[in-house]
């Protein structure tokens, strides 16, 4: 992995403020009165078990979902307002990559720059190849997403975000479905990108190692509510039993539910 | 009552999609390669099936009308009947149905797949409106290609009829007589009316197919369901619009 010192530097970056955000789907509350603040330039990690509403929260910040009540601000701009996307350069690294399957890796990266006419074709080529080299993907430029492994897709997705020179970078489960080595690589990339671009990064994950390694601050989201916010060190010995069980799960094969399974099987 | 609400919601969202796409009309010059690609997909790839079907529809029409008109001694008007039927009604409707099956289904499948696999969400976060990149080039391409396909369908149908009239033993009309009858009663307005119909049908089909594709939710199974829904809805809309447009043009 080459050193990402050549990464483009964001001219400015934005913080995120979430005020009493509630979201329901068909009467089922997914987010319940969520409030938090992400400061400009920090890596903020939102952790929580599967189904706790992490990705829904991220979609609200990206402006992809409308809140049932409450508001989300990126800087001073309302995230639910479509015009915000023209004012804030926001990049979202999707859990499944969300690469454009009908385009090559190169075209996936070049799309944003072409559509917004930010550079001429030579300038676009230079930036795309630079991003691909940072993520060790230069040889994959002509491949199509269908020809890539899961880890490569994740890296292409990060490269696509990097090319945008984002002012706010969102990651949805960046290390899910990856082997430990690839997960460690992705963690290094996220940390290195922030170090070199100073862009606000908001990471949603249930990967404890990722959260404790790169977070400046982190929050725990459980059952649609923020249970705790603090620095990673504060979560090393949590006092709340639910948080402790989530962060340091113990495997108890003597638990009554397993005994019940055994009995059913017999 | 709930179904009525769903229908009105569907109509509303389809109209809204057209308005949103129209707002980006100014970006069309720089989307020229995309427009050309869509013209190729809508026009060129549909051409063989349009040619074959319209030729045989013209032939069958001549055969059926020749069989009936022989009894009344009005065989010399077969050219008029085939020509006007194709130009005013069968040409535009048949092309619209073929475009639905050949192109509309593909559009819905592509957009639904992009929606399910979050490619549309990725576009939105990049501030690239899907209406601009995915809908507008298709709408403009169908408006350009529908008249072309319809004229080709009309011509193939006429020639199919002419061939049958010449070589069918019980009709036996020379092409000169057939085309003279066709020209005698056909006006420019008839051709224009047919082309207007084709434009309306094509625009409606692509719009409906885009809207249903972009509204797909769920997993891969819903992609197939959306394609079926788009094709069925488009066919109904073609026939409903056919009545109203015909009434308006008469």
Quick overview of this protein structure:
Chain A is of the alpha/beta class and 266 residues long. Chain A is 35% helix and 23% strand.
Write a concise keyword list for the protein shown above.
heterodimer, A: 266 residues, alpha/beta, 6-stranded mixed sheet, 4-stranded antiparallel sheet, 35% helix, globular, disordered N terminus, B: 250 residues, mainly alpha, 9 helices, elongated
Protein architecture, described:
The complex is a heterodimer of chains A (266) and B (250). Chain A has helices at 54-61, 84-87, 105-115, 121-134, 150-163, 180-197, 208-214, 241-247, 256-265, and strands spanning 16-25, 28-38, 43-47, 69-74, 77-78, 90-93, 168-172, 200-205, 217-222, 225-230. In chain A, helix 4 (121-134) crosses helix 5 (150-163). Chain A is 35% helix and 23% strand. Chain A contains nine helices and ten strands. With 266 residues, chain A is α/β, with parallel strands linked by helices. In chain A, 42% of the residues are buried. In chain A, the strands form two sheets. A six-stranded mixed sheet of chain A has the order 6-7-8-3-9-10, sandwiched between helices. Chain A has a four-stranded antiparallel sheet with strand order 2-1-4-5, with helices on one face. Chain B has 250 residues and is mainly alpha-helical. Chain B contains nine helices and no strands. The A-B interface holds A 59, 62-64, 85-86, 90-92, 94, 96, 98-102, 111-112, 115-117, 164 and B 30, 110, 113-114, 117-119, 121-122, 124-128, 133.
């Amino acid at each position: 992995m080459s050193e990402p010192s050549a990464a483009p530097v964001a001219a400015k970056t934005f913080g995120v403020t979430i005020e009493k955000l509630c979201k329901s789907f068909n009467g089922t509350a997914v987010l319940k009165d969520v409030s938090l603040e992400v400061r400009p330039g920090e890596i903020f990690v939102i952790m929580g078990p599967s189904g706790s509403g992490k990705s829904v929260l991220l979609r609200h910040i990206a402006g992809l979902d409308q809140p049932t009540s409450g508001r989300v601000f990126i800087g001073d701009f309302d995230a639910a307002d479509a015009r915000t996307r023209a004012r804030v350069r926001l990049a979202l690294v999707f859990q499944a990559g969300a690469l454009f399957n009908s385009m090559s890796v190169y075209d996936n990266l070049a799309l944003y720059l072409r559509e917004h006419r930010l550079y001429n074709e030579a300038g676009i080529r230079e930036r795309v190849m630079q991003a691909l080299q940072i993520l060790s993907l230069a040889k994959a430029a002509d491949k199509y997403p269908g020809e890539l492994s899961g880890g490569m897709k994740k890296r292409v997705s990060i490269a696509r975000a990097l090319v945008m020179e984002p002012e706010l970078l969102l990651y949805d489960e960046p290390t899910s479905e990856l082997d430990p080595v690839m997960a460690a690589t992705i963690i290094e990339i996220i940390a290195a990108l922030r170090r070199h671009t100073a862009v606000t990064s908001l990471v949603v994950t249930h990967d404890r190692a990722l959260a404790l390694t790169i977070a400046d601050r982190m929050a725990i989201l459980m059952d649609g509510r923020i249970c705790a916010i603090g620095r990673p060190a504060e979560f090393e010995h949590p006092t709340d039993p639910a948080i402790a069980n989530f962060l340091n799960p113990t495997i108890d094969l003597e638990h009554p539910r397993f005994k019940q399974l055994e009995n059913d099987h017999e | 009552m709930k179904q009525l609400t769903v229908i009105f919601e569907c109509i509303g969202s389809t109209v809204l999609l057209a308005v949103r796409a129209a707002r980006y009309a100014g970006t069309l010059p720089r989307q020229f390669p995309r427009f050309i690609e869509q013209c190729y997909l809508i026009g060129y790839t549909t051409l063989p099936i349009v040619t074959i079907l319209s030729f045989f529809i013209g032939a069958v029409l001549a055969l059926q009308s020749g069989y009936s008109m022989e009894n009344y001694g009005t065989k010399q008007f077969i050219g008029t009947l085939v020509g006007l039927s194709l130009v005013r009604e069968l040409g535009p409707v048949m092309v619209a149905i073929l475009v639905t099956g050949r192109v509309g289904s593909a559009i819905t499948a592509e957009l639904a797949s992009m929606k399910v696999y979050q490619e549309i969400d990725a576009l939105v976060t990049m501030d690239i409106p899907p209406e601009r990149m995915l809908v507008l080039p298709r709408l403009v391409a169908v408006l350009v290609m529908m008249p072309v396909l319809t004229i080709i369908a009309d011509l193939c149908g006429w020639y199919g009829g002419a061939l049958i009239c010449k070589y069918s033993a019980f009709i036996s009309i020379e092409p000169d007589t057939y085309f003279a009858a066709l020209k005698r009663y056909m006006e420019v307005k008839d051709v224009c009316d047919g082309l207007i119909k084709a434009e309306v049908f094509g625009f409606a089909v692509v719009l409906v197919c885009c809207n249903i594709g972009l509204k797909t939710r769920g997993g891969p199974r819903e992609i197939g369901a959306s394609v079926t829904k788009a094709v069925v809805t488009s066919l109904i809309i073609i026939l409903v619009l056919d009545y109203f447009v015909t009434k308006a043009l008469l």
